[in-house]
Amino acid sequence: MTDKYCVIGNPIAHSKSPDIHAAFAAATGQDIAYERRLAPLDGFADTVRDLVAQGYRGANVTVPFKLEAAALATRLEERARLAGAVNTLRFDGSEIVGDNTDGPGLVADIVRNAGVPLAGKRILLLGAGGAARGVILPFLREKPEAIVIANRTRATADALVAHFADHVAYPGQIAACGFADIAGPFDVVVNATSASLSADLPPVPASAFRAGTLALDMMYGKEPTPFMVFAARHGATVRDGLGMLVEQAAEAFAVWRGVRPDTADVLAYMRAAS
Ligand code: ATR
């Protein structure tokens, strides 16, 4: 019997996840079906209950349901609990297990695909919303020297530092600041603000970058984002969020199937198709 999975969101028509998972299934010889599922804005829990009743084995969760998915799960993996959000559900008997592979996907893209190890590095994380929060624990596991969280609303960045206080290797490994106080340069700069959605540039100073800084925007599109253009102008090597998208899918596939697919071919194909 083919095991069934889907991605739940609203809107969902644009999602590339079915193509990615179909490619992973073909490459690993796993017999799965994976489709898009539009949930009504007030109908996420009912949608999940339907899937469980229909024998689905799991689901990915995307905008705007990641927080609701964390609340609905009967059990949360640690990385999902600390992220406060779930992008991967696994249906296991009566349990709905919530996981979050977004952060591990970003780390895999930086370390494996971009070839930039994070151990001992200084990381600047722009933004302190859900996207930023999800990557902090996976970043800490790579043992960076420092993670500086810069946010427009400083108090939200301070709250994130406090939230992860028990997970730092030493005091000060994570710090918060406003954009005006960013003291660069950094080895890696990640744009986790939603500014690129509205084609805005977060107010990051040029001094955050040096020649060879890896600057990664979690967003992707046909054109480089204003953040990528700005970072490249100041010497950075830039990357968009397509690699993170493919890697978070590979991590979810591994959660469900116990096999982590190779991503290089799929990423190259998605890049050519986008
Ligand atoms: P997400 O789930 O995508 O992280 P979110 O939780 O709404 O979305 O968080 C959006 C983040 O982008 C926040 O850090 C927000 O800053 P504030 O906390 O000050 O609101 C940040 N953000 C959005 N637009 C921005 C802009 N134009 N410049 C800088 N930061 C921006």
UniProtKB/TrEMBL annotation:
Residues 241-267 form the SDH C-terminal domain. Keywords: Amino-acid biosynthesis, Aromatic amino acid biosynthesis, NADP, Oxidoreductase. Residues 7-89 form the Shikimate dehydrogenase substrate binding N-terminal domain. InterPro entries: Aminoacid_DH-like_N_sf, NAD(P)-bd_dom_sf, SDH_C, Shikimate_DH, Shikimate_DH-bd_N, Shikimate_DH_fam, Shikm_DH/Glu-tRNA_Rdtase. Its EC number is 1.1.1.25. It catalyses: shikimate + NADP(+) = 3-dehydroshikimate + NADPH + H(+). GO terms for molecular function: shikimate 3-dehydrogenase (NADP+) activity. This is Shikimate dehydrogenase (NADP(+)). The gene is aroE.
